[in-house]
Amino acid sequence: MLSIKNLHASIEGKEILKGIDLEVKPGEVHAIMGPNGSGKSTLASVLAGRELFEVTEGKVKYFGKDLFDLSPEERASEGIFLGFQYPIEIPGVSMVNFMKTAVNEQRKHKGLEPMSSSDFLKLMREKKELVELDAALANRSVNEGFSGGEKKRNEIFQMAMLEPKLSILDETDSGLDIDALRIVANGVNKLKSADNATIVITHYQRLLDYIVPDYVHVLYNGKIIKSGGKDLALELEEKGYDWLKKGETV
Amino acid sequence: MEKDQDKILNEVTQGEYKYGFVTDIEAESIPKGLNEDVVRMISQKKNEPEFMLEFRLKAFRHWQTLKMPEWAHLKIPEIDYQDIIYYSAPKQKPKLESMDDVDPELKETFDKLGIPLDEQKRLAGVAVDAVMDSVSVKTTFKENLAELGIIFCSFSEAVQEHPDLVKKYMGSVVPYTDNYFAALNSAVFSDGSFCYIPKGVRCPMELSTYFRINAANTGQFERTLIVADDDSYVSYLEGCTAPQRDENQLHAAIVEIVAMRNSEVKYSTVQNWYPGDKNGKGGIYNFVTKRGKCAGENSKISWTQVETGSAVTWKYPSCILLGDNSSGEFYSVAVTNNHQQADTGTKMIHIGKNTKSVIVSKGISAGFSENSYRGLVKVVKNAKNARNFSQCDSLLLGDKCGAHTFPYIEVDNKDSVVEHEATTSKIGEDQIFYCNQRGIKTEDAIGLIVNGYAKEVLNKLPMEFAVEAQKLLQISLEGSVG
């Protein structure tokens, strides 16, 4: 599904990603861990197509297509979803209007008719329950006045609405209390299928108690320096990152 | 990063003006230039009673003593008032007393503008007075309204049929001495709409006037007068467009509203005059004096405007709150793009006791445009317990445009409360990316964000027009953000 080869990216001339290789297949859950500033969020942004970052080298194939040929909105319509670390507020734009526009734009991309209002509202109700979001959410402006936990749940809610093939969750656990963490993780687990894949970017092992990864990768200084199974996360929790930094080898 | 923003800006603000076509119809015009003879000629063409000619001549003589105002934050090249045609009327076939009395060419023009003049085709619940250049072409639903005692007709017709009402109220809110453009309009205005709602009548449909400039080198000077008698209600709409031309054209209008005891008038404008091209060539100079007088107790006047067109806009729809407990509202969205300039706002003059006013102004600037809010809140000594709340927000798209706020507050008593809030924001690259990431194209994202920003004002528009206005906002900013 996703094949990253020797990916280099920089911002304002400063290289952040220094040669990433990663293969993701349908049905898999990958966790990317690493200390602050290692390039985790940059990787997420580059995959989603944020223009702040310049890709200087390497290739990314997504279902056989060159990912960099696609605009951010095309990537979204092709099934790439980014759960933002800091979800953006859009004052005056209601969640219902925002989601309806997004769902119908993506349907248009697939050659489908726009969804009827009643079907859409039914879908919203259904998906809202998944992340235990307040029913009043639909009439509130996108992320405006949402608590930290609500914003993160709202990201998972949008993921549920858009049914992506590849979800990249950027530090979705940061700032969540244990109850919110459980709700978010449950949402992600329920959406898991044999056809879609998830990349979970996290700082702490904690989230991985709830979302069990098939693979764990350690990103440090713009490179993946170690990959392993879910036990690697536990090892990291115990020993920290320092023992890996020294070798910087896979 | 800046480069990206520029790109989005460029993409979103390069929308084309949809109404730029010209109708090829024979017109009856008078020669260019302005003098007493021209004023007399206009009055004569309209077969006006003596009091009208006198009013015009007084206004003209006063205008000659005035200079064009220069206090606005606008750069306007000198206007040669002798180089303008002051009267141009599309020549119509001989009139028939039926629905088909409108020239097919004209009908087609208004159809193209989305304003069908056939009552069957018309949006249910909206009566229209269609004005092209200097004359009213057709007023729909006149008969139905007449059954309720409502007078809705062109200004020219009102002068003929209801001279007493015209004489009583014309100039009672905006005297010809008010300002330069009011004096000019009073001298040469050629048509417009007139509306009278009798005591206790709630007008069952939206009344609207659609203004279209068609002829070249012509100025449009229309005048609208709305009188709402005791305990009445009316909602009024105004729309306007003009062909795409390289020369600037002048539009100087007057709107007067009189609201009696317990009456309410809502006046909504969707102004989409041709704004000029990307380089600032052409476009309408829009100098408008709009003012309402809450003459009676508990009366209410509400102005809502969506301003997207014109090369230059100079316009301050105002309320004189004379009656005790009367209230005035001003809700405005003003969009400027490319090289457009707008200096717009309101005046709320509190004279009666317990008078209230609300001002919500949302400016959106893109391209190289300049967008200013200018507002006066004045509370006189006897206006005990007056209240005002003002909110002026500016949204900037890109870094080459300007947004300015000039609030003037004059309060002459101690028990009034005046509040003013102002914000300035930019559409963030992060907001656009967030939308993109959900599959929403940049252009649509800006549409969403801008409409969200302007929602408070758009919600005040009658339903049918709110949808139109939303689309218009998006089109006006097309190509402006990157």
Cα separation of the termini of chain B = 10 Å
- What is the CATH topology of chain A? Rossmann fold
Ranges of chain A where pLDDT stays below 50 over 5 or more residues in a row are none
Structural class of chain A: alpha/beta
Q: CATH superfamily name of chain A?
A: P-loop containing nucleotide triphosphate hydrolases
Integer-rounded radius of gyration of chain B: 22 Å
Provide a descriptive summary of the structure in words.
The complex is a heterodimer of chains A (250) and B (482). Chain A has helices spanning 40-48, 72-77, 95-109, 117-130, 148-162, 178-191, 231-239, 242-247, and strands at 2-11, 14-24, 29-33, 54-62, 65-66, 80-83, 90-94, 141-142, 166-170, 197-202, 215-220, 223-228. Chain A is an alpha/beta fold and 250 residues long. Chain A has one domain: Rossmann fold (3-Layer(aba) Sandwich), CATH 3.40.50. A six-stranded mixed β-sheet of chain A has the order 6-9-10-3-11-12, sandwiched between helices. In chain A, strands 2-1-4-5 form a four-stranded antiparallel β-sheet, with helices on one face. In chain A, a hairpin with a 2-residue loop joins β4 and β5. The two termini of chain A are 23 Å apart. Chain B is of the alpha/beta class. Chain B has one domain (2-477). Helix content of chain B is 24%, strand content 35%. Chain B contains eleven helices and 22 strands. Chain B has helices at residues 2-13, 36-45, 50-64, 104-112, 142-146, 155-161, 163-169, 180-188, 429-437, 442-458, 463-477; strands at 27-29, 88-90, 126-132, 135-139, 151-154, 193-197, 206-212, 223-228, 233-241, 248-259, 264-271, 283-294, 300-307, 312-315, 318-321, 327-336, 341-350, 356-365, 370-379, 387-396, 402-411, 417-426. Chain A binds chain B through residues 48-52, 71-73, 76-77, 81-82, 84, 87-94, 97-99, 101-102, 105-106, 109, 141, 158, 162, and chain B through 1, 4, 428-431, 433-442, 444, 448-449, 451-456.
